[in-house]
């Protein structure tokens, strides 16, 4: 198999990322010459590749890769690579046209912008202060830019520095912009940007707290997607013929309705909440006014307000049982969806419920599901408890976030880890003190050979037994661990030391724990510090009462530290 001609290898690796190729070459050193093949390295994608925590990234490229062939480079999330290294690399990439460098040390400072001269596509993070540059540099070095993705990280400085940059981006067709501020007084004025961009045909806005009402009909842009869930607010506009622009809430499909899905769609519409589907489906439905041919890749039925009523739940079931959801990849639901089916003739009261779970059909219909989030509904009662046992039938699951009610004992997690062999990400949120959950979770973890990210939030955790569970894993795949609990009274120091010794690949160990004893606190900090031997690593202990914001953590890791949904929203890393 190794002795294939290079054309065959080229074909194989053309569709894989550079990360796959690099991992492959690590196993078969004699194939490293593939990294010099033009067609293979043309699109070089090493987004978030933790291999470069130990290996010097820029040195690797300079020595092993035929870098002058690179036209598209994705280094998103390589936050630890020093700025001067990245700049020296960029100065060598004379053919580079696309650069994806979110969450790296690159920005819009003058020395960075000078390196962007050939770029048609750019994704980068910048503070408002970084934008305070000689505007002529933007004029000279960024005028070719067609697609731009900008994450605005900090708001110190004058915001007009940001606006004036856009005046020089004549060719810009597509803009993605994320505002990370949490202060309403400092929101970006998007009008100041949009009205400068004559040729814009797609605008993606993401914000943490709020986006004011924006109407871009005058410039021929239709709002095709809007999601205001938790701390992720996303609005998307696309160029559209004037007569087709309708307010999103007024979109209606052609009746008569022929399918169950269309009826369900109409029911959801009457709740005046966000529609559950992903951007791709939203755009198609907006443009065609047709739901029955849509294909859903993501569905999110969680809203800031909980709709625990039979109409909403039935509509959710109908969405998820439709053939349109057969290729569903990501799903976020409230635990209401786990309810039993009410018999059609009797009243909808608990005693009358048969033990039929519509979720069983959903699990079968959505068997390709890779990501599942289940939020707990406080109005739902113990009748949903057995249904958690169905989750382990979703054998393609890679990421699971589950909020566990106090009446669920967590033994379903043992089955999930045994049956879902691809599970890489597990986040468990406990709704209260749940001793059985703790015990079952510790039991489950010891089989978690494939787990990379693990997060637990609970009133009380027995950290000693939890770490014992983690220490029984021998795969060395764990990357990030986050523990948040108010009460922790065990002596877990030894287990922590074992964990860190056994898993030098751990990037993030964040313990948000209330510890009263000063000596214990100091000892744990000492252990964490001793093993935190690389600038990519974050090992922390801090009291739950303190806000985490004082800990300087990369946004890359916020997904595991904060509760937010990942379904039917937009991640700037999706900008490609
Ligand atoms: Zn409910
Ligand atoms: Zn509820
Ligand atoms: Zn306690």
From TrEMBL:
InterPro entries: F-box-like_dom_sf, F-box_dom, LRR_dom_sf. It comes from the Eukaryota. Residues 1-44 form the F-box domain. PROSITE patterns: FBOX. Gene3D superfamilies: Ribonuclease Inhibitor. This is Uncharacterized protein LOC115877506 isoform X2. It comes from Sitophilus oryzae.
């Amino acid at each position: 198999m190794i002795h294939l001609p290079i054309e065959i290898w080229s074909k194989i690796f053309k569709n894989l990322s550079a990360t796959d190729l690099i991992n492959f070459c690590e196993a078969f050193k004699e194939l490293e010459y593939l990294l010099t093949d033009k067609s293979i390295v043309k699109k070089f994608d090493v987004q978030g590749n933790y291999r470069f925590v130990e290996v010097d990234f820029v040195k690797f490229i300079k020595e092993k890769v035929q870098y002058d062939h690179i036209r598209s480079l994705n280094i998103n999330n390589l936050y630890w690579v020093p700025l001067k290294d990245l700049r020296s690399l960029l100065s060598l990439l004379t053919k580079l046209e696309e650069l994806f460098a979110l969450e790296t040390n690159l920005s819009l400072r003058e020395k960075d912008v000078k390196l962007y001269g050939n770029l048609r596509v750019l994704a980068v993070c910048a503070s408002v202060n970084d934008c305070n540059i000689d505007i002529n540099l933007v004029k000279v070095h960024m005028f070719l830019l067609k697609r731009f993705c900008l994450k605005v990280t900090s708001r110190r400085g004058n915001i007009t520095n940001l606006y004036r940059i856009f005046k020089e981006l004549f060719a810009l067709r597509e803009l993605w912009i994320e505002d990370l501020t949490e202060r309403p007084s400092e929101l970006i004025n998007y009008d100041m940007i949009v009205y400068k961009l004559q040729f814009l045909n797609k605008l993606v806005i993401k914000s943490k707290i709020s986006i004011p009402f924006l109407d871009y009909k005058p410039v021929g842009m239709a709002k095709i997607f809007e999601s205001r869930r938790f701390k992720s607010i996303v609005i998307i506009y696309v160029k559209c013929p004037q007569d087709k622009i309708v307010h999103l809430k007024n979109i209606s499909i052609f009746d008569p309705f022929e399918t169950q899905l269309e009826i369900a769609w109409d029911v959801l519409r009457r709740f005046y909440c966000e529609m559950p589907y992903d951007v791709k489906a939203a755009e198609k439905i907006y443009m065609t006014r047709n739901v029955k041919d849509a294909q859903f890749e993501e569905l999110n039925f969680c809203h800031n307000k909980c709709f625990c009523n039979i109409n909403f739940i039935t509509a959710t079931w109908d969405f998820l049982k439709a053939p349109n959801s057969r290729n569903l990849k990501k799903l976020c639901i409230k635990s209401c969806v786990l309810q039993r089916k009410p018999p059609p003739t009797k009243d909808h009261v608990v005693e009358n419920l048969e033990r039929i779970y519509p979720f069983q059909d959903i699990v079968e219909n959505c068997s390709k599901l890779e990501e599942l989030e289940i939020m707990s509904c406080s109005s739902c009662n113990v009748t949903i408890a057995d249904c958690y046992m169905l989750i382990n039938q979703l054998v393609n699951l890679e990421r699971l976030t589950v909020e566990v009610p106090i009446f669920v004992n967590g033994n379903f997690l043992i089955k999930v880890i045994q049956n879902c062999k691809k599970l890489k990400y597990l986040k468990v949120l406990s709704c209260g003190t749940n001793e059985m959950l703790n015990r079952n979770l510790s039991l489950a973890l010891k089989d978690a050979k494939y787990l990379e990210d693990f997060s637990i939030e609970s009133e009380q955790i027995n950290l000693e037994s939890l770490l014992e569970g983690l220490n029984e894993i021998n795969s060395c795949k764990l990357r990030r661990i986050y523990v948040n609990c108010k009460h922790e009274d065990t002596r877990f120091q030894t287990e922590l030391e074992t964990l860190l010794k056994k898993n030098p690949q751990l990037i993030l160990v964040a313990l948000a724990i209330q510890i009263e004893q000063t000596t214990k606190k100091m000892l744990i900090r000492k252990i964490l510090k001793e093993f935190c031997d690389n600038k990519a690593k974050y090992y922390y202990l801090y009291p739950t009462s303190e806000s985490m914001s004082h800990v300087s953590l990369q946004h890359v890791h916020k997904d595991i530290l904060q509760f937010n949904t990942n379904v039917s929203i937009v991640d700037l890393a999706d900008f490609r």
